[in-house]
Request: fold
Amino acid sequence: MSAATGFTVDQVRALAARHDEPAWLLEQRLAAFEAWQAAPYPSSQDEDWRRSDFRHLDLERGLPLVTPNGGAHPRPDAADAAGFLSFCDGQLAAQRLAPELEAAGVVLCPLHTALRTHGDLIRDSLMTRCVPVDEDPFTRLHAALWTAGTFLYVPDGVTVPAPLLSAVQLSHGGVAALHHTLVIAGSGAQVEVVEESSGGSADRTLSVPVVEVLAGSGSQVGFSAIQTWHHGVTEVAHRRVWTGRDAQVRLTVGSLGCQMVKSFVGAVLAGEGGSAKLAGIYFPEGGQHLDYTTMQDHRVPHCTSELLFKGALYDRAQAIFRGVVRVRPEAQQTDAYQTNNNLLLGQEARADSMPVLEIEADDVKCSHGATLAHLNDEDLFYLRSRGLESGTAQRMVIAGFFEPVLTTIPLTSLREQLQQAVRERIAQH
Amino acid sequence: MADGAELVIRDLRATVAGKEILKGVNLTLGAGERHVLLGANGSGKSTLAYVLMGHPNYTVTGGSVEFAGQDLLALEPDERARLGLFLAFQYPKEITGVTVSNFLRTAVEATRGEKVSLREFSKLLTGHMATLEMQPEFARRYLNEGFSGGERKRNEMLQLLALQPKLAILDETDSGLDVQMRQLVANVVRELASSNTGFLVVTHYEDVVRQMQPQHVHIMLDGRIAMSGGLELVERLGAEKSFDWVREEVSHGAVN
Ligand SMILES: Nc1ncnc2c1ncn2[C@@H]1O[C@H](COP(=O)(O)OP(=O)(O)OP(=O)(O)O)[C@@H](O)[C@H]1O
Ligand SMILES: [Mg+2]
Reply:
């Protein structure tokens, strides 16, 4: 294989050298790369992959890893955040953290920077258990080539009073962006994080993010990931929370951009008494194709998990929701719920919803529900009977459909920006 | 919206799911008048209310309706509302994600045809909610979602007070309410009536009828207005405890 084509081992080595990475990390990268090369695509027989074909990505041809191109770095508009970390084209563009949080030991910095100060912690956590390297070809590709990362550490007992923002932007396309986000919350820590990905272009652009959120015992952690990528971007994402004893976590994902998305969203309930809420919204249009696999993985007793995914689809858009609830034999007294609501707004829009219950314990409360609906004339009539024009009534019902999930996003500025984006999309149809 | 408006229904016929329900309804309500509509379950009272408001499931097959000098049946439901017609639903819909307050403000602006400042709206909302003995948190809840029967009815009354229509049709707004709440409904009717809002009230409760002091009482039977009169009809119903006598008198031609 020549160095000019394909993802290459030289890319891996250059990356490690540029950041003077520790040997263990280079080893992790190289092993992952070798495994990825042996099988660059998931099997089309695999339930999680067979509904989305990624061969158009032409991974063998490779892609340049994103590098700074000297463009302007828009500062995130996040006055209401306690701190932010902003990346543009794989490079740190701006950062801020409230001084009192820094004094309390909170760390919010690029992952490469944190390797020098929190090397052992990262070595112990980075793609070891939450999203393991060897989960699938894309986790391997990510482990081999992650280019930049967000690191957040909140020490035991520390409460971060306002949300923190991680912004990932691309000023151009034709590149691969592999951003890693590692959040480690200590015992009893409380923090809300919002991650926003945007930019890219219609040129072949691939985003392969991995988010790992490790919530220590008794911690309360919220993480919202919102992507508004250019409509030409392909994203294959893994986002997962790992709960310690009595931890309460929430993971919300929102999807407005991209041509094609494969998104794994999950919670591993690994400490007794933990609870996880997973929420998602998607609002595709045109030929956008969104494919979700969610996982509520109960490994220990006495945990609860709740999932609510809501999608509205215009035009020929397609959404696939495969919701797995897994209750391992030890995980007695599990409560797990799953709801997926789809609203079909386009003539040729399609939504498939597949609950998968893998229950291996016997003392379990578990339920799932899926709805598929069009706009309801009687609902609209109720609103119109109060003087609202048909269009206004429709906009209100569609925007309202997303509200139960949007209201879980803690950063007011981002929530309002999303509500605005939803209204704009409605207005365009 | 000051002043009432006249409603004239002539030989109105309508079907739902291919079945004829309204079989020639004739009814005239003068501007600002209060009318009560009684009738057995299934006689077509809600159907009449829905048809007047323009419900998509009902098809008008004959007759005409004039309201505020316009051909009501030619108008969209929202145009009817903006003309000053209001229907308090027997079973109002749940709309997820739309708060009572957001909806009400949009509706007030739509019917008035102008923006209403947040300050003015808050004042209006607080006032009406106090009248209806509603807790302020109520305004932030999603429209009818998880509302109790009584809360739904209260919410319909809140919309009625906020929109100040020319003519309000109340479809069993008093059902499922305790005596005290029924009293409140009657008070709201009287208060709006004093500013000349007309009423067509579908009810099964004598106490409500008496308190709202209607000028006219109608009894519906099998999709027609079978009998019209005054409060004496209510008295007779109270004594007979059924509508059978209406049917008998109608079939013997002893109407009006
Ligand atoms: N969508 C529908 N499909 C079929 N039949 C209907 C439909 N809606 C109403 N009907 C029928 O029309 C008739 C009149 O119903 P309507 O609801 O108007 O009666 P009502 O007088 O309001 O009764 P109630 O006092 O019980 O509220 C009933 O026989 C009812 O079953
Ligand atoms: Mg009825």
